Each structure stands twice: as structure tokens, then as C-alpha cells.
Amino acid sequence: xTVRSVTKRFGDVLAVDEVAFELHAGRITCLLGPSGCGKSxxxxxxxxxxxxxxxxxxxxxxxxxxxxxxxxPEQRRIGLVFQDFALFPHLTALxxxxxxxxxxxxxxxxxxxxxxxxxxxxxxxxxSWPHNLSGGEQQRVAIARALAPRPSALLLDEPFSGLDxxxxxxxxxxxxxxxxxxxxxxxxxxxxxxxxxxxxxDLLLMSEGRVIQRGxxxxxxxxxxxxxxxxxxxxxxxxxxVVESGRAECAFGSWPVEQWPDGxxxxxxxxxxxxxxxxxxxxxxxxxxxxxVWYEVHLRVGEQRATMGLIDQPPAVGDVLKIDIAPQHAAxxxxx
Amino acid sequence: MALGGAxxxxxxxxxxxxxxxxxxxxxxxxxxxxxxxxxxLVGILVSALSGQGADIPPRxxxxxxxxxxxxxxxxxxGTAVLGSVAAWLMVMYRFPGRTFFSWxxxxxxxxxxxxxxxxxxxxxxxxxxxxxxMRAALGFDLPFEIRSTGGAAFVLSCAFxxxxxxxxxxxxxxxxxxxxxxxxxxxxxxxxxFRRAALPLAxxxxxAGVALAVMETLADYGAVQFLAVQTLTTGVVRAWSxxxxxxxxxxxxxxxxxxxxALLWVERNARTGRSHDSARVQPRPLPVSTLRGFRAAAxxxxxxxxxxxxxxxxxxxxIHNALDxxxxxxxxxxxxxxxLTMGIGGAVVTTALALLLALGATRAPKLARIxxxxxxxxxxAIAIGLLMxxxxxxxxxxxxxxxxxxIGLLVYAYAARLMAAALEPIDAGLxxxxxxxxxxxxxxxxxxxxxxxxxxxxxARGALLTAALIVFVDxxxxxxxxxxxxxxxxxxxxxIANNYALDERLGQAGWPSVLIIVLALPPxxxxxxxxxxxxxxx
Lengths: 336, 538
What we know:
By secondary structure, chain A is α+β, with helices and mostly antiparallel strands. Chain A has 2 domains: 2-232, Rossmann fold, CATH 3.40.50.300; 235-333, CATH 2.40.50.140. Chain A is built from 8 helices and 20 strands. Chain A has helices at 39-47, 93-97, 106-119, 135-147, 165-180, 193-199, 217-222, 227-233; strands at residues 2-10, 13-22, 28-32, 54-59, 62-66, 69-70, 78-81, 153-157, 185-190, 202-207, 210-215, 237-244, 247-250, 253-256, 263-269, 274-290, 295-301, 304-310, 320-325, 330-333. The two termini of chain A are 32 Å apart. Chain B is mainly alpha-helical. Chain B folds into 2 domains: 24-49 and 327-504, MetI-like (MetI-like fold, Orthogonal Bundle); 54-284 and 292-325, MetI-like fold (Orthogonal Bundle). In chain B, 76% of the residues lie in helices and 1% in strands. Chain B is built from 25 helices and 2 strands. The longest helix of chain B is centred in the N-terminal third of the chain and has 35 residues, at 58-92. Chain B is globular, with a radius of gyration of 25 Å. The model of chain B is unreliable at 1-21 and 273-282 (pLDDT under 50). The interface between A and B is medium-sized, with 34 and 30 residues.
């Protein structure tokens, strides 16, 4: 599927601003962005539930939207899984799953439906009513329902946001297998960076209606193009730096950089980029908080502040730590 | 494959902006449905202003108008008091019989107003057995005359208090308990808390319930006409039936239209005005206090008295009277058949139209308001409003069978009047379908109409039944529009009851009246039990 320059306005507000990307069969793309950045609107436009003001959408060599053409949602063969699952309360799980299979004999519908439910581990819940299913079960039925008509693309809107902690992690694995088996091009919309990186083969970072970066999760995490992009994926220390003869230097240390013009720049240091060392920059410990995975240590060098993480042996407030920078976790931002 | 209103080839932005908003088929049907309510209103205006025929003297207009207004005021007060007290008792206290009364107090809705009028005239009228006996045995007479505006107000208050009762009951149940508790903590007694906290908070519901009761009062024909009270509605029917002037009837109907519009505005505003608190606070179970001794007896006595006066006594009296007279079985069965056919047929048509309106009006709420105007308009006025357009259509397309024209007009009048009554439960039922469910069905291959048929309608099944039953009961009780529009020799139970009563054959009038109540009771019981069980927020 190809999305080209799709734009959507609500009054004066530009909800979607010239968004363009491609989805490929068998690959999972995650669209990551904060709430209100336009990702849900974009999804509805792709599915045909809303009209784009400008731009084109193409799927399977067919123009779905653009140039005076607008194919109705029921003809687009694009599956959509909603945040609230939207199961039909008057139908059993199996009937929900087979809802999109029109024009097939009943026996075949049943067979396809049971196969899908089995793939998601729900074969024994086939005749349950939606209100008797748990949140995780409802979600899997919703996904199975969207997959049943073999869509060319599958869009999932915050699929795990309605589920809590442990269940989420467990479900991600089972849903992932189910999705990969389906051959559809999958787009998952989420605001959870961890989820986006764990699930996605490709990432699209979105902010204020625009796609600000695309790439693999590693590329986006290690080499973000802007501070906004960096912060979407996790904690980032953004500091002024100076590049000179192949090295970038900031308040907390320096590291080698390639192919970067000399002069002022902006540095992005992930918390894991700062590590204690025997001869590095002396930084004062301003605060220490225990966060579960590690201790969050807030440091100060002169006017600059940064956060680092230490798994054990946390320092006390007021100590002076020597730190240096691990180059693989540090980057320079292309845009300030 | 290329759908959505834009012609192929118009790719520039300017051309797209000139494109008309394309109406989906559902929205088109909704528009048609709402227009059905509008045509009779337009008919009234045009007929009244056309002036062919007698111009009603202003003196008469004023007299009828004054009586209508006075009656409306009396019934408004009567139903407000009866309905509110009953609702308060039911919600706040436990006393013997409470569970039974909580749904049975709504049952007087099964009895048409004219049935109550016949029963009470026979029972309490000056020429009735009771008064004759009193004069002879006790030497004095009761100081009132049932055939008066006061008598009509009594009868109609009995008939219509359930509207206020149901509205207030819902309002009290939905109220935030904290408001009442706060009032008590600030030193109010139970009664004071009711008067100063609960009642003001429930004011919107009171306004809505009273507005409904007053709408029905203004629309009533059978009871009022029998009790010799000359209201605008009786004037409308008389102008048409006795003086044969449609224009005159329409002129009398105009003030009714205005009153209807005003009442509708009150009712709708009361609904939307109900806002803030109770929606956000999760209602806790109400502190129901148990009444003991004298108070418990008084509460039970009040409820029993209300139910007896409004339904049981007149019903029993009608039966007692009817048993003294040999019924015309043939005529009765014919009329019952006609009533049932019109009731069921009308209910199906009206519910279908209301469903179309509800489905298509999600993006245009104004359409639903237009339909509501029909509900506020008395049946007599709607019937008059249909006569002129019907005559116009007749001239263009003369149809062979006047019978089917009459039936068609009658069903049309029922639909115009009752579509809004059906709309309300259907709207509530459709609200259980979330927008994402509709979108999900679209992405699964259903068109907009398909989504409505395969998802929205099945989920709202129960609401459709509720709506159909409400319309069915209302059609059974309907009199004035039926009198005006029915084809020759097509009488319903209401019509023959009215005919017998006009001949002063009250005993005979009992049979069809009782039959109406018997047919209307099962759906009414089902409906009131359904309402009684639910509590908002649960």
C-alpha cells in the first residue's frame, strides 16, 4: 500500500500534513506518536471512513483515494481493529469473526472462522458472547475478525492500550505470530515506544500531523533526527555540543563522529550513554530516584544537566562522579 | 468503484468545493420520514388562511381557548402533585406493596380518557344511581357537577398522571444521593430535603412530564366532549363534522399548534437543561428508609387510592354496567378487528419510519425535532391538516377506492403524531451501538445501509419492540383523528364507544371501553415493568 501526501484539515487545524509512506505485505509497521498527533485520523482516512483533503492512497495497484476517486470503505479490503475492539454484542465470537465473509456457503464460513480462532487460541470460546470474554480475548477476536476476509492491509489502533501490564506482554507475542502468518501489510498505531520498537519491523514517527522520521526501530532510536523524535522513543538528554576534527564535545564528555562539519551542533545522549569511568568529566549528583529497572541519577556539570541510569551501587546526592560517553548510544541531531 | 459524489476528472480543489453534499440513502429516508410530520402542519396553516367557509367569530375562539387553557392548568397542577408524590414515595421509602405499586401506578395509561369519563359520569353524575340514592337517603347532594371543567380536570388528571410519575421516578432515581445527604446534614428534615433539594433538582423532569400531560390534555377529545366541556379540540371536530368547514376547523386548530410548539419547547429544553451533577456522579444505592405504623399505612393507602381511582374503580364500574346490557357482539368483534388491525399496522409503519429517522438523523438532529412537532399536535388537528392536501392529491390522481384512501390517511395521521413517541426508545436503543461498531462493519464489507441492517437494528431489537408497543397502545386509545379520517363503515372500538356514549347508552359504551383496556393492558404492563426495573447508571 502506498500513501502519498495525504492531508486533512479540520477547520484551521492541520490534522494530517502531507503524510507519505509505504506498507509491504508481511511486514509490520508501527506508527508512533503522542495523542492528538493525527495518527487515528490518518488511520480512518486510509480505511475510507473519512475523506482526505489532498493526497492519494493506493493499494494492490488500485487507486483508493485521490484524483476525484474515493472508494467506499466496504470496497477497500482494508481491515481495521479498533481500540475498544467494537465486537458486535448480538453475535457470538464465531459469528463476529465470520461477519466479513459474505457470499460464501455457511460451512466454509464456519471453517475459516474456526481456523482463525484456533490460530489465536480461542477455539473453545467460539460460541461465547462478547460480554463474556475477557479484554485479551475480545482483542484477539477483533483481530481474527479483521483478518477473516484476507485484507491486503490491516490497521490496528492502539491494540494493547486497553490491557494491563503482564497481559500486554503476553498478548504481544501471540498476536505477533498470528499477524505474521497472515501475509497482510500491517500498520500498528501506538503511543507506547516500547511496544512500537518490539513489534515493528519499520517505524514511522509522527508529531503534529507530520511524519518526522522513518526507519528500523534501531535506526530511529540510535540516530533520531530531532529532539522530538528522540523523546518519542525514550528518555533523551539534549545538550549543546561542538564538533571539531572528528570529535563532538559536550559538557559531559566527547566521542568520535564521522562526516560531520565542524562547528556547533546539538547532542542527544541516551541515559545509557553516560557511564562511570576512572578518568572522565566530573559531574555532581543532584538527585537519585529508584525506578525499578535502574536508579535514575540526575547529574550536573556547570549549567548543563543530564540523567543517567545505574543498575546498582547508586551514588549519594552530592557525590561527584566521573563519567564518560559510550559512543554507540550518543548521536548528533540533524535538526535542533 | 469510484463513489462519493465527485465526478471523475474534477481534481482541482475549487471544483471539489462546489460539490453538493451527497445524501446517503439512509439520510434521504430520514428526510422523507420527518417531512411526513410536516405536511399536516402546513395543511393546517394553508386551510386556515384560505378562508373558504365560515370564519370563526373571535368570541368563540376566545371562549374555547380560555377553557382549553384553564383545563390545561388544572390538569398540569393535578398531575404534577399526584405524579411527584407517588414517585417520591416509591423511590425514597419502603412500605407494604411498594414493589407492586412501582410498576402498577403507570397502568392508567392503558385506559383511554373517555372510558374514565363514562365511568365517572355514570358513578358520580347528578343523574347517576349514587347521587339519586344520596339525595333520597341522606337528604343532601354532593356539591359538584362532573360535567364541568373541574370534572374533566379530575378525569384527565387520573388518566395522565403516569407521565409525570414515570418522569419524576426516573429523575429521583438518577439523582445524586450526595445532594440529599448534604441537605439533611445542613439541618433539613426528610420533608424539607424533598422540598428544597430533591424537588428543584428534579424540576426539569417535572416540566417534561407535565408538558406531556398537558399536550395529551389539549389533544383529548372523547372525555372532554362527553363531559360537555368546550375546548379548542372539540371545536375543531365540531367545526368539521357539524358545520362542514375545514377552514373553520383549521382556524381553531391554529392556537393548538402554537400551544403545542410552546409545550414542545418546554419539554425539549427541560431535557437538555438537565445536565451537570447526576451525570458525573456514580449513583449510590439510595438510602431507602422503611416506613412504619401510621406512615406506612398512609403511603400504602395513597398509592392504593390513586390506582383505584385512576383505573380499578372505573374499570370495575364499566364492567359492572356493561354486564347489565346485552352487547352487540357482531359490531363489537368487527370494531375490535379494526382496532387491532390499525393498531398493529400503524405500529409497524410508525416504528419503521421512526427507525429510518433515527438511523439517518445522526448527522442531522434537526430532523428529529421536526418529527417531535407532530407529537405535540393534537390528533384532531393533524387530521384536519391532512384533509386539504388529500383533496389536492385526489384531484390530480383520482383513486378508485375511497376505502384505501381513508385507511392510508389514518395510518399517515397516526405516524405523523406518534413517530416522535417511537423515536425516543429507538434512539436509546441505538445508542448502545458505538460509532466504532458501525465503522467496523463498514471495513468488513457492509454499505451504510448494510451496517444499519446487520448491526444497528439487531442490537436495538428490544427498543424497537418497546416503541411498537407504545404506538400500539396509543392507537387503540385514539379517537378524534379516527373519527375524522376513517373510511365509511370502518369503526374502531373507540369510535363505537363514543357513538354509544353520545346516544347516552353508557351501559353499551362499557363493552368497547372495557375491551380497549383489556387489549391495552398486557403491553402496558410489560412496558411499565420494564421501566420499573431499570435504574439509570446501573
